[in-house]
Structure formats: C-alpha cells, structure tokens
C-alpha cells in the first residue's frame, strides 16, 4: 500500500481522539445526543486546528446507524464509507478552487433531493471565505431555509471575509491554537504506534515550530522521523525545523550581558550562514527572554518554559538581569519584528535591535534573590534635572541675590569656568573650506540619522544643529554647553553617529562639537577678519563670475544655506508645510 503522511494516517476519527477544542466537542456532543442539531455551522480558526476533521466526525455522528449518539461508532457501513470519503450524502466542497456562482448553483439544485442512504445530507464547504459575492448571494437563501434533511458546515481561516448575513445564519465555533502539551501528547501517540523512541526536548522543538497547528506538527514529525536513523533526537529536530537550540540562545544572551559586540554579531552571522531565518530568530529570542522572565517571577511554572529550562545555568542567567531590562529587550525585539515583516533586509533590522540591546542600560548583577535591584538612571532624565538646576541657579543670581543684604560681608566666590574647551581653531579651519553641498547633504539626512540612534544618544543631540561642513568635517552647534561637553566625551556616540551618517551621505565626516555662544563668537570673528582682509587673499570666481576671496566664498555658501533655511521656515509658517514644495 502507498505510504501516507502522518497527518493523514493519524487524523482523528472520533471526538475522543481530538486534541484540544474542548468547548467545541462538548457543545456538539450534547446537541448530537439530544438530537437538537441546527441546519448550519461555521467553524473558524487557524490552519491545522481540526476544523475539517471535526466536520467529518460530526457528519459521521449525525448519520451513524446507532444515532443519536455522542460518538460515531466507526464500525457501521455508514461510518466506514464517510471515513473513506466514499459516502454520496457527505459532500466536501473546496471553495478555494470552486469559487464561482455556477458551482454553488449546482449544490443548490441538488440539495432539495433526499439523501441516498443516510439520515442527512451534509455539505462541508472548506475555505468558504474564497467564494465570490455572487456565490454568497446564491447560497444565502438556501442557507437560511434548507430542507430538513440538509446540514451545512462552513470552514474558514478568515471569518472576517464572510458576509455578516451568512454568519448570522450559522452557529459559530471558534477553534483555538492547540497548546504545546496537546501537540506533544499526540506526537507521543504516533511515535509509540510506529515503535520509535524519542527525546522529550525534540518533541517540544517541533511543537514550538508548529505554532499551535497539529497538521504542521505531524508533517514536521514525519520529516524528522525520515531524517533520523533511529530515535527522534533533539539535534535532528533542530536541523529539520530550522530552530535553534537553547545552548545557542544561552551563548547569545551571555554575550549581550557582557556587552561583547563582536561576539554577538559574529554569532548572528554564523546563524545566518547556517540558513536560519532572521524573523524566526527574533521570535525565538522573544520567547527566550520570556522564559527568563518566567524563571525570575514564577520559578514553579517550569512546565511553561519553551526554550529555556530549569537548569542552574539558566536560573543564574535569568537572575543576572533586572526585570526592566528583560522587558526592554522584549519591547525592542517586538517592534523590530513588526518592521522586519515589511522589509527585504530583515537581517539588518535584527542586527540593529541587538546593538540597541547592547547599548541599553547594563544588566544588574544579583548575587542572590534577596539582594535589592539597582536601577540604572535614564540619561535623558539626568540631563533634564541638570538643566533645571542651572536655570534655578541663574534665576537666583539675577533676582534673588540682588534684593538681599547680608549682615556681614562675604568673600566673593571665584567664577567657575567650564571644563569644556571649545575647538575654536578647528572650527575656523572648517569654515575656511566649508561648502554649501556638504552642509546641505548633512541636513537632508540629519533626521534619518537621529532616528537610528539609541534614546540616550538621541537625547544628547536633541538640541544640536549642523551649521557648517567641509569635505571631511562638520560643525555641530549645541544650545546647552553641558550637553556639548557630554556629547564630546561620549566615544560610543561619536563612533556610532559618524558611521550612521557616513552610510547615509556616502562620506565619512569628523564631528566637531561647539556651544552656541562660542559658535557665534567664532563665526563673527571669521566674518570680520576675512572681510577686512579680502583684498589680500587669493581669489576665486563666485556664481556670477566675479572674483572673490576663497574664505569669503565659503562664508557666502554658509550664509546662503542659512538664508535659504530662514526663507523656507517663513514660507512654511505662512502657507503650511503641505503647500510648500522646495526645488533646487
């Protein structure tokens, strides 16, 4: 006899053999036993959850020679012929390949005829949402008032595509995804029946890959059995399903905890070379961090773990992260997963997500469960508090101190000086060779570059603005001196931001940071000096053909950009951004 796939051989033939869907089984069995079945049913739910199998079992129970019964006997001639898809009164109809109104009319014409040998004519219409509008309209009246001997069972994975007029005439049952334990238990029955040994963890891997669908799980199990030599082992299941073992996730999260950028990206590249899917990998990472959360918060619920286990190394790893850090990792991966579904460069999104996780707050090492959790303060919140303190001190100096008379003269405190030394000389050198095209290129890509930064880095550059650029460097003006100093001292920000900007502009620029007050002073001095000495400088031709001083020419470029930005902003204020079209 020709070999048949597991999902066909081990298809349930009675309600007793069905996995899960207890709410559906109980309702249908009670109706069968009381002989109170209605004329139309709608079975909806994800693929592989038992909709068509339930419809066939229900058809057998309706027409069983011992009816009314809660379970078909599977021994009488009627039950056997329905099981073999040979009974003339149980008609299966595939709406996906027969969606036109002509096929539905054929059913309508034949439904009025009495059944050949069974009690009821049962029409099972699979993928009913694929029917055309005219086909639904033709079916509507028959579905509302069918003959007493006719029963309709509609099955679909997309109930929202079915007209409300059809749904309102059916008794609806929503099939749920099967639990991992239900799928594992069914696979054990199959393997015991064929005499194959197995590892429990291998069945869990297959169950997770099936995502709640029994048919997918049995298909993958069939493939793993064909691949493995003897028993079903974990490595065989990982290879066939394309899943990743828990030890690999342990290594990856260890590298993230230790901030090893090279090891994280290297391991990701190795997984990609092995043919792993980046979207699937992001899903598995979310599941792994969920398991770590579960180990921390509910260690007694070890049966709910999917990728991690209750081994000591996983318990220790889970306790080395704070809950907020794990929540943050899951949030980053969830947002990235949504973006990856609509991109052809999903690997880049996953790499970016891992870098964000590496640059987020350091994990909190907990020596034991009783130790308090030390939270890493948010950098942007610290910056806001510093600015508030500066404003408070400034206000006190201006208003509060002047109106108070001290009883005894106090020694005047020396004025504090900033520890940040502005690179005035370097800024002047950039102004000498600054060009309009370079500053325009940086400004056009500025917002895109900012969006690719981490929140802490973006907060540092929130009040900054590029004001001048040459072919190899650009000047970044800061409104607050403290933010300028913090940005200049942040080596990670300098490296990551320049790389990001280089990828967008095609040029690698050196970033030169300067506070706004110092920038105004340097720029004014540059204007005064080079306009006064323009007669003694080398000359170049401007846009109109006149010879001008080369530094002054670069200054003209800068002023043109600033004037253009002013004109654009004024136009947007007058007419609105939607009505302003900028053309070169």
TrEMBL record:
<comment type="similarity">
    <text>Belongs to the DnaX/STICHEL family.</text>
</comment>
<dbReference type="InterPro" id="IPR001270">
    <property type="entry name" value="ClpA/B"/>
</dbReference>
<keyword id="KW-0239">DNA-directed DNA polymerase</keyword>
<keyword id="KW-0547">Nucleotide-binding</keyword>
<dbReference type="InterPro" id="IPR003593">
    <property type="entry name" value="AAA+_ATPase"/>
</dbReference>
<dbReference type="InterPro" id="IPR022754">
    <property type="entry name" value="DNA_pol_III_gamma-3"/>
</dbReference>
<dbReference type="Pfam" id="PF13177">
    <property type="entry name" value="DNA_pol3_delta2"/>
</dbReference>
<keyword id="KW-0235">DNA replication</keyword>
<dbReference type="InterPro" id="IPR012763">
    <property type="entry name" value="DNA_pol_III_sug/sutau_N"/>
</dbReference>
<keyword id="KW-0067">ATP-binding</keyword>
<dbReference type="InterPro" id="IPR027417">
    <property type="entry name" value="P-loop_NTPase"/>
</dbReference>
<dbReference type="InterPro" id="IPR045085">
    <property type="entry name" value="HLD_clamp_pol_III_gamma_tau"/>
</dbReference>
<dbReference type="GO" id="GO:0003677">
    <property type="term" value="F:DNA binding"/>
</dbReference>
<dbReference type="Pfam" id="PF22608">
    <property type="entry name" value="DNAX_ATPase_lid"/>
</dbReference>
<feature type="domain" description="AAA+ ATPase">
    <location>
        <begin position="37"/>
        <end position="179"/>
    </location>
</feature>
<dbReference type="GO" id="GO:0009360">
    <property type="term" value="C:DNA polymerase III complex"/>
</dbReference>
<keyword id="KW-0808">Transferase</keyword>
<dbReference type="InterPro" id="IPR008921">
    <property type="entry name" value="DNA_pol3_clamp-load_cplx_C"/>
</dbReference>
<feature type="region of interest" description="Disordered">
    <location>
        <begin position="400"/>
        <end position="423"/>
    </location>
</feature>
<keyword id="KW-0548">Nucleotidyltransferase</keyword>
<dbReference type="Pfam" id="PF12169">
    <property type="entry name" value="DNA_pol3_gamma3"/>
</dbReference>
<keyword id="KW-0479">Metal-binding</keyword>
<dbReference type="GO" id="GO:0003887">
    <property type="term" value="F:DNA-directed DNA polymerase activity"/>
</dbReference>
<dbReference type="InterPro" id="IPR050238">
    <property type="entry name" value="DNA_Rep/Repair_Clamp_Loader"/>
</dbReference>
<dbReference type="GO" id="GO:0046872">
    <property type="term" value="F:metal ion binding"/>
</dbReference>
<dbReference type="GO" id="GO:0005524">
    <property type="term" value="F:ATP binding"/>
</dbReference>
<protein>
    <recommendedName>
        <fullName>DNA-directed DNA polymerase</fullName>
        <ecNumber>2.7.7.7</ecNumber>
    </recommendedName>
</protein>
<dbReference type="GO" id="GO:0006261">
    <property type="term" value="P:DNA-templated DNA replication"/>
</dbReference>
<keyword id="KW-0862">Zinc</keyword>
